[in-house]
Amino acid sequence: MLVQDRVTANPNPKPPKSKIKSTINHHHEDLHQRFSESKSLDFSTWVSENFYKIITVTVLIATVAAIFFLRSSGDTAAFLYLQSQAQPLDKTHHFPRINWNNIPAITDKSSPYANFRSEKWIVVSVSHYPSNSLKKLVRIKGWQLLAIGNSRTPNDWSLKGAIFLSLEQQASLGFRVAGYVPFDSYLRKSVGYLFAIQHGAKKIFDADDRGEVIDDDLGKHFDVELIGEGARQETILQYSHEDENRSVVNPYVHFGQRTVWPRGLPLENVGEIGHEEFYTEIFGGKQFIQQGISNGLPDVDSVFYYTRKTGLEAFDIRFDERAPKVALPQGVMVPVNSFNTIYHSSAFWGLMLPVSVSTMASDVLRGYWGQRLLWEIGGYVVVYPPTVHRYDTVGGYPFSEEKDLHVNVGRLVKFLVAWRSSEHRLFEKILELSFAMAEEGFWSEQDVKFTAAWLQDLLAVGYRQPRLMSFELDRPRASIGHGDRKEFVPRKFPSVHLGVEETGTVNYEIANLIRWRKNFGNVVLVMFCNGPVERTALEWRLLYGRIFKTVIILSWQKNEDLAVEAGHLDHMYKHLPKIFDRYSSAEGFLFLQDDTILNYWNLLQADKAKLWITDKVSKSWTTMSTNRNTDWYAKQAEMVKKVVGSMPVHFQVNYKGAMKSDQSLVIGSSEIFYIPQHFVTDFVDLVGLVGDLDIHQKVAIPMFFMSMDSPQNFDSVLSTMVYKRKPPPDNSTLYSAQVPAVHPWNVSSEQDFIKLIRIMAEGDPLLMELV
């Protein structure tokens, strides 16, 4: 991820040395006064009188020692894990209680700018001496630049025309939030937002010191004025709300870059690169949050940065400046960042940057959180053509630092769209949502307290909370008539592909990806991982998430951080009904084990209304006589016989018609199979018939399939797969890009995954962008 001054936030930052020194002197004098009169006590008496103090101090020392050990031992992951765990919250004891009518005003009495007022502010965080970009930013006519310092900012920082607030000046302003924000991070901008509001702000441009405003004019594309003579009285193109299952979009597609995606876009949505079939329109005036696009180095995540970056050549990606701005309807969200965004006063409450998450995730979470609350006041986000040019001058962050963001952001969007509140004032809704997000583990209780402090500070500096508006999502959605449909076909701008610009060949490959996605975009992939999920789960999602509706990963052990569900492979069929229920609108479900590679490009001819299984692959599907095998087979056959005897007539007729003898048993390895939606009810009924019986997956799946339909009706798409019981010494000799699937294949590390991707690129060349 490439954002301003991104370092991991310390939730308990160390204050500057000057503050530490004054604090020590104060405590030294206090201790001198308290112990000036000595007492003559023997040791046992002293211990008995101070027993509880001794226990308390001992626990405190042990805690500090443990934290110091984690810090110094190099186990950063362990320490960050402890930092990030949100404890379950009890609303009775942890929900902040605020008397909204009794919040004293905070006025600027200490800074040299106490009497200064301006309606338009640019707020940036600075850690180094003024950059060339910042020197241009300060000269933008009609806007006041506010630079917020941190513990890394030079003491003699200065820029003519800018207001600079050092740590000491920030502390003297009296804002409650100052006690929560880390000393060494761009998150201190929250103090700056309050200062700007206190000094008359009506619009705030959230920026960084690496972006240059195109043509030095923020009003060229942004809607700086929403009302009055300067406002553009025009309708705005809006994404369609017709697809009720869509909750997030990639705006870069609209502006000409189909293979680039913004930081904060769920990875499962990266493959959605088709342009809109149609748009609708909305009247302007309530675009209270305005997200600009950045040329040069746009806001991208580390996955994009490292899969597209070659050598030391800087990115210079361009977007279509002639594309119209586009609005987001209620129910659909877009990533919003903290370095190219205008907030109007009605959305100032949404500027709060959370402090309990990593700085790489803070502005992304703020953006989604703010969009959801914006719907409560009838506002919306609009994305604008390129407004700044950012230079690629620094390296990206490791993927591991963004892992939590990639894992949680998709779940966060779904949570926010579904969230409802019965509170009657906006600030009460804001506080309730912050608490709910802590309960769900998206941030910690620290941000609940921070939200309470932020809202009180807003009121203290004279901000008035907007009134609530009617909520559209809970009303029946109006049908979109032909006359309401507006067309816009985005231009296709050159992008980077393996270090070169895209060509006609690449465009052909993108067309293939669109076709595969269109075919399988409503099919859920259920994947069981025998290998280490901490090394492969995200990679599997990145590979198959481009094609399928979603990728659900199960393993022997649950891993909440990676969104991996627990399941037992021997009885995996018993877990599937829960997944079917969660995705009741899906077209079908494809089950896959991680030792089988899926060549999805060879599945287009398959009938998604039929069952798929490896019944025609001899080494995968075997009929055995129960009279000639071990007790295990005999017990399995006995349980199958019991289930078949309890089946309704249609299941029983199908099964017995497929089996030639009741003394035989079909064993199917079941590494891959597909169930269309209209067979889901049958599958669930059959699972219910098995009940608590210990029928193995390899026995249950063939029994279910033969009961649901006649094998002659199965689609034969998997019949040509490569199937070996044991892998050859050289895996590469086993693989073929011309078959639908390959088994077996071992992927247990990122290196194995990279090797696999390079081989699979024969069928899908765009996969090379992932390595």
Automatic annotation (TrEMBL):
The segment annotated Disordered runs over 1-21
Key words, A-Z? Membrane, Transmembrane, Transmembrane helix
Entry keyword annotation includes Transmembrane helix: yes
Pfam families from the entry?
STELLO
Alphabetical list of InterPro entries matching this protein: STL-like (IPR005049)
**Entry's transmembrane regions:** 51-70
Xref: PANTHER family: EXOSTOSIN DOMAIN-CONTAINING PROTEIN-RELATED, GLYCOSYLTRANSFERASE STELLO1-RELATED
Name of this protein: Glycosyltransferase STELLO1
Source species: Salix dunnii
Q: What is the lineage of its organism?
A: Eukaryota, Viridiplantae, Streptophyta, Embryophyta, Tracheophyta
